[in-house]
Design goal:
alpha/beta; binds 4'-deoxy-4'-aminopyridoxal-5'-phosphate; 4-stranded mixed beta sheet; 7-stranded mixed beta sheet; 15% strand; Aspartate Aminotransferase, domain 2; 2 domains; Aspartate Aminotransferase, domain 1; 16 strands
């Protein structure tokens, strides 16, 4: 007898092509049709449950089917679903922008919408370049990025990223960028603090800024955590130093908070921990609580003013996406920010982060774990062949994939990045659920290192 899961799987595999997937893998590993979801739980067509420990690719904040966001969307759908956003506006878009301006680091006073993270990165890159052009600095055409960074998959965003797995194939299509060795603290010397290592590594960025000040538009960075780059982390001092150096050399700072924004690192925005304001801040993912695709680029009045002139001067930012400022997505965003403003979310996350930190202590002793690191609500575990030399398992062995398969069979959705297992759960997770999650991850790791 074929199960409901199998029936849907069969139909899916006949017509669909899934993201970031070698589709042939589904000859041996099931694709899971989800019927419904609630809180941290996903439920498949056969009635199995999975704890969504990765917030469905880092988007979900307050659980699936959150009552507050659901109610807002039900109201919105009977009022206005979408309207062209050039020449027209609507309340959810205005309200969301007002809230973002209020909550974001000082000086970010303008909000430009797009519809996904990569598109926000494209907007920030184009705006930065265009600002300098409008100001007469036509020689500024380059972007500076960090080793191991990730900013999305469209060609511009891919070009300023640096994860070879995603980038290398498309290299002939991509613009040239200036890539600086990063502050990834996994590589610090024994006994060296995150702070000291981050300061030490900053000298390479300072040299680069000095060298390319005349030709660089902006530095783009993921504040505090390089998420797709295997959840590698660094100290906020790097951002503080970077802000000062960008000012000194007249280069913009683009903070890509698409993954780390909205409380993941412990503060609402990661930049707050360095007490800095970037020139552009890209937001997406958690912006709608994980409900609908939307992104925003926040920027300063100085940048806005450089585009503001008579039409005939041709200085306007003529960039658009059909779904810019989608009313449903904006309303989900407003409802999401309501939750932050009405409940002590960040306080509660501190408690959850402390629980996670306590629960993962045992991983430190494991013979095949080189590092357990944490920033706020993100914990990452570095699975290696040799703990002492940090020699990785060959990627071809796909140990992370084994962790994924085992955890799924025990009702937990983990999706390791290579051999890095991480937790980035929705903020509604409970202590009991965290205990279960960590237990399953531990067993999954032990299964994955066999033979
Ligand atoms: N920037 C960062 C830091 C991200 O983590 C991601 C997505 N993982 C993106 C940009 C791209 O966002 P999207 O997938 O919505 O295009």
């Amino acid at each position: 007898m074929i199960t409901a899961n199998q029936r849907f799987e069969k139909r899916d595999l006949l017509v669909l092509w899934h993201p970031c997937t070698q589709m042939k893998d589904h000859e041996t590993s099931a694709i899971i049709p989800i019927k419904k979801a609630h809180g941290v739980w996903l439920e498949d067509m056969d009635g199995n449950h999975y704890l969504d420990a990765i917030s469905s690719w880092w988007v979900n904040l307050f659980g699936h089917a959150n009552p507050h966001i659901n109610a807002a969307l039900k109201d919105q759908i009977d009022t206005l679903e979408h309207v062209i956003f050039a020449g027209f506006t609507h309340e959810p878009a205005i309200q969301l922008a007002e809230k973002l301006v209020e909550l974001s680091p000082e000086g970010l006073v303008r909000c430009f919408y797009a519809d996904n993270g990569s598109a926000a990165v494209e907007v920030a890159l184009k705006m930065s370049f265009h600002y300098w052009r409008n100001k007469g600095y036509t020689q500024k055409t380059k972007f500076i990025t960090l080793e191991n960074s990730y900013h999305g998959e469209t060609l511009g965003a891919l070009a300023v990223g640096n994860v070879p797995l995603y980038k290398e194939t498309y290299a002939p299509l991509l613009m040239d960028v200036i890539t600086v060795p990063g502050p990834d603290c996994y590589y610090r010397e024994t006994g060296e603090s995150w702070f000291d290592y981050s300061v030490r590594r900053f000298s390479l960025m300072e040299e680069t800024l000095q060298r390319y000040a005349d030709s660089a538009c902006a530095v783009i960075i993921e504040p505090l955590i390089q998420c797709a780059g295997q959840m590698r982390m660094y100290d906020p001092i790097y951002l503080t130093l970077l802000r000062a150096a960008c000012d000194k050399y007249q280069v913009h700072l683009i903070a890509d908070e698409i993954a780390v924004g909205f409380g993941r690192t412990g503060t609402l925005f990661a930049c707050e921990q360095a007490d800095i304001s970037p020139d552009f801040m890209c937001l997406s993912k958690g912006l709608t609580g994980g409900y609908l695709p939307l992104s925003a680029v926040l920027t300063t009045d100085a940048i806005y003013q450089a585009f503001y002139d008579d039409y005939q001067k041709l200085t306007a930012f003529l960039h658009s996406h059909s779904y810019t400022g989608n009313a449903l997505a904006c309303r989900a965003g407003v409802a999401t920010l309501d939750i932050f403003q009405q409940q002590p979310i960040l306080e509660n996350n501190k408690r959850l982060a402390a629980i996670m930190s306590r629960l993962v202590v045992r991983f430190n002793e494991h013979l095949h774990i080189a590092e357990v690191r944490q920033t706020g609500m993100v914990v990452a575990i570095e699975l290696v062949k040799n703990k002492y030399t940090k020699e990785p398992y060959p990627w071809q062995e796909r140990r992370g994939q084994k962790v994924y398969q085992y955890a799924l069979s025990k009702g937990v959705l983990l999706r390791p990045l290579g051999n890095v297992i991480y937790f980035m759960p929705p903020y509604v997770i409970t202590e009991e659920q965290l205990i279960m999650l960590v237990e399953v991850a531990f067993d999954a790791i032990n299964q994955a290192i066999k033979d």
